[in-house]
Amino acid sequence: MFEMSRVAARPSTLAGRRVGSRRVSGSAALVVAVAAAGVLLWRPPPPEAGPTATLPPHAAEVWPNAQRASINASLPDGTVYHPTLFLDATASIGTAPEPGAAHLRLLYRAPGGQLRELRRLPNVDEPEFAAIAVEKGTIVWAESTIDTNGRAHTELWSADLAGDRPARRLTADTGQFLYLGSEYDLAITDGWLHWAAASPDQGTDTELRAVSLDGGPVTVKAQPGDWELSRWPYLISIGSGGPIRLHNVVERQTTQVAAIPDEVVTCSPSWCRLLVVPLEGQPQSVLVRPDGGDRQVVPPDTALPSVVDVAALDRFEVLTEGNADNPEQSSRVLYLYDITQRRTVEIARGVGTVQSRGGYLWWSTGVGKETVWHTLDMRSI
Asked: What is the rounded distance in angstroms from the CA atom of residue 346 to the CA atom of residue 338?
């Protein structure tokens, strides 16, 4: 359901923070797979029964003026394009192999469809463009390769979207870069790029690293405990055992998230996502504030969260319904749950891959060279 990278140095982080444990059996086996991919698992008192379920309305009816677009994945050279970050409804950053597949390319696809190659890496080195962020016309990314000894190496690079200046390496001093598939794995603020790295001695500290967008030496600050970056300037605790905590690195304040024993939890500074696990029946998706308030059961109960980050724009939860064993196959139904209106809206059917970053939602239909990417600007809703 969620894509994770080899760059992530702590496998336990993929399941969030667990408080206590219990065995899950039968139909709840699905929840184990979801929790292992980053969705939080919680067993609070059962939610109150709602009204009889009805089919969600379609986005075309509810949000007729929302900005949407569709682009073909097939490029003029015959390769297939995979967007990893949309800059507007049609412009994006993404990857595609070169013809012959000797290299993997990082591309800027402009609003008119023009392509600009930002980087290329030999496929023999198992390249991965693991995290991408953009700020005021500057794009930064983490790129990972595997050496002949099987060790992963990560570097941070930058490029300007305007002009044709070549990409420049910011640093190779990344430490054990933590990549969890979140849009917050890299954070740009005040001309600095921030990321988190695992402690090199396998201790309990997390390294908070930063480098100027102009390059130069990397600053490293040890933060006691296991943390990942959330929406800047927050960290969210990860790993096994203990309460969930949110830490503001600017104000140096830590908040403990309301939780009960026997939970696997992940949160943003504004919302926590959980799955209620009944002894029998279908798991139920729930949203709740970090202080335990404003609890909302997310319909339909047959759908599950489809992206790592909780509550895009603090308003929308991305859900899919259907077989997720092979997300490349277009067989799912895509929904958005609108927190402010407390309702679920159907976005599309026959959906394959689903991603959301920076206020944009995008999904694929079709397979291979017949793939089409569809976008929805959630900020226009």
From this structure: 11
- 3-state DSSP assignment of residue 301: coil
Largest CA distance in the chain: 60
Q: How many CB atoms lie within 10 A of CB 340?
A: 9
- CA distance linking residue 296 with residue 92, whole number of Å: 33
Domain boundaries in the chain?
A: 11-380
Among 318, 333, 335, 296, smallest CA distance to 44 is for 296
> Do 196 and 228 meet the contact criterion of CB atoms below 8 Å apart?
yes
Measured CA to CA, the distance from residue 293 to residue 171 in angstroms comes to 42
Which residues lie below 8 Å from residue 104, measured CB to CB, with a gap of 6+? 95, 96, 97, 98, 120, 121, 123, 127, 129
Q: What pTM did the predictor assign?
A: 0.85
Contacts (Cβ under 8 Å, ≥6 apart) of 222: 199, 205, 206, 207, 208
Q: Mapped to the 3 state alphabet, what secondary structure does 159-197 carry?
A: EECCCCCCCEEEECCCCEECCCCCCCCCEEECCEEEEEE
Q: DSSP string spanning 100-111?
A: TSSEEEEEEE-T
pLDDT, tens digit, 9 for 90 and up, residues 149-177 = 999 999 999 999 998 899 999 999 999 99
* Nearest-10 Cα torsion for 303, 368, 5, 94: -100
Asked whether the beta carbons of 223 and 233 are under 8 A apart, the reply is no
Cα 215 to chain centroid distance, Å, stands at 26
**Closest C-alpha to 180, from 136, 237, 219:** 237
- pLDDT band, residue 339 (cuts 50/70/90): very high
3-state class (DSSP) for residue 311: coil
Q: Domain 11-380 carries which CATH code?
A: 2.130.10
Residue-wise pLDDT for 13-64, tens only, equals: 333 333 332 223 333 333 333 433 333 343 344 444 444 458 899 999 999 9
| CA–CA dist 129, 338 (Å, integer) | 31
**Among the listed residues 334, 370, 337, the one whose alpha carbon sits nearest the alpha carbon of residue 352:** 334
